[in-house]
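Journal club prep — side note

Before the paper discussion, L.F. wants everyone to see what a predicted structure for a comparable chain looks like in token form. Sequence:
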Amino acid sequence: MADIGTEEILEFMKSGARRPLSFRELVKSFNVPRSDRNRFKSTIKKMVDEGMLVKIRGARYGLPTRMNLVTGELTCHPDGFGFVIPEEGGEDVFIGPRKLRGAMHGDRVVARVEGYKRGGRREGSIIRVLERAHKEVVGRFKKVRGASFVIPANERILDDIVIPPRNTMGARDGTMVVARITRWPASHQSALGKIVEIIGDPEDPDVEVEVIARKYGLPHRFPPGVLHEVESVAMEVRPGELRGRTDLRDRRIFTIDGESAKDFDDAVGIERTPKGYRLFVSIADVSHYVKEGSLLDAEAYERGTSVYFPDRSIPMLPEALSNGICSLNPKVDRLTLTAELEFDRRGRPVGRRFYESVIRSKERLTYTNVKKVLSGEDEELEKRYSHILEDLRTMEELALKLNRRRMEEGSIDFDLPEPQIIIDIEGRVEDIVKSERNIAHRMIEEFMLAANRAVAELFSSRGWPFLYRVHERPDEESIAEFREFIAGFGYHMKGKVTPKSFQRILESVEGRPEERLINHVLLRSMKQAVYSDENTGHFGLAFKDYTHFTSPIRRFPDLVVHRLLKRFLKRRYNEKERERMQKLLPEIAAHASRRERKAMEAEREIVDLKKAQFMLDKVGEVYGGFISGVTSFGFFVELKDYYVEGLVHVTTLTDDFYTYVEKEHSLVGETTNRRFRLGSEVMVRIAHVDIERRRIDMEIEEPPGGARAKRTRRRRK
């Protein structure tokens, strides 16, 4: 008898089985001879383990979808409930606290749909855990009345891990540890574990990074095999490596980066032509050193991206590569891939050429110094960079034209300030300030966008398998809500909504009191950009074709794009390669998008931690701010003095009962009609700082004779 595959069994269960079947009935249905029954039984068991089939009471098997069951990943909320995100798509299933039944955040589960909540959302209960997400948990070790347990650092892991006395490894109360789970939680049973590693003091900056890296599953130490592979890489360019490359070492090419940057993966050069401009964007040829199929390649794929914290980073590649031979350091030879882009006098692209090259960066410039040179505010710097001063001015000229064209095409340009956390030599937060975005930032941004776009257009025009950076348009509900919101300020979007429609609104509000507010609301309406092998365009940039090509030191997708481009240049993109890429690219895109989200979450959390630490000694102080978000349980306030956000909980508003008006983004007093609206200015007092939850609680500070006092006098009258 030929092997009976899972697809054949699934097809039969969909169309041939009218009810859940026993194993004996399945054997009979497929005429399985006695000699093959053990193999058939293993196939059925594997399908149950993977969630394709579900085994129910009476040892019967059926399809989850035909038994009102959903297979998917459980996402828990710190307040105790969760949602199952179906693998086959569709609406999430709400799981109440009492119906988790030992399942933990991230587990792959089967849930039974048992009804519907108000608003039509499905709700149900977990009936089986198919795959556990966490075998080890990082958290804080606590001792209370002789009992020991670990409180998970990830607040979405709802169960504390009980540690028997013999399994504590001598950990001290309050220490950050790693606990291995030895017994999973159940409906009326706590999780058990044992300490396998003591990380250290939670207030140590090194420990903070370690904990967050482990919490988000960020590999932060390179395996010995990877480091051994790096040892065989030459740390200087050898003559034999220049064969077939275009020599740009005599050309004025230089890097422009932040003051603290160490990995320089892009360098730029420019020249005027009779018809306009010729721009050289040279990117580190990381693919020359990280070979496909190597241990280095596997580790870079696993990491997906470098992760940047305020005082350090977790690099995608070992430092010898990222800060060494791959980094476009000044005055040394470096291997690159160059995009040579031609523009006319109005900044319109008229030609492009790509080639392997070798450069020798003339200078390592910073954004701050370039801005000072271009603004003419530092004569000493002008003298120091006199040999490239004209190039910088030409770059500024081209960048402004590229930006103007991009805005005309409808590219949405959010100019929201980002916090810059200043760390002292001991790793403590010294200040939180607004990060500067000057003309030098805009220059490099425009040149990188142009290079990324040009590479994407090359592959899109030929219809070859490729890795794109895509951004979907907002859904209709989000667009309708945004229309309604801006209408309250007298702004309207007419006709079909395009990127240009949103850009016009941002131009209309520029310099007005509501500018920041409308920028915030629009940003929240947007979907997240992702990687994809399908080119659906980039809505936010208003680009039909876009990719990531310019940062292969810190992003794995850029490294993949380099490999694809080099195959094209060497005419190796044949039919066999096309088929291979069609299989590989979808998973690479999905994995890279997942790793990017993890990195963003980790970066956001450590920034929130640093903000909480910074505000700890400011409890009781009063600050001005504006409302940056409104929910049913309160509103968030961003301080003017520092780029720090805190929560004013609705229970602290004692002068009235407040109702959340979602369409107005406001809380409204039932009696007083007092409004706390998104964008409104308020005075707040720092009430409490919770370091563990990275939360800053605030309360409204009423001025003497202010609104509350006036309302009290009015009532007395």
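L.F.'s comment for the group: Residues 668 and 674 are 6 Å apart (CA to CA). Keep this in mind when we get to the figures.
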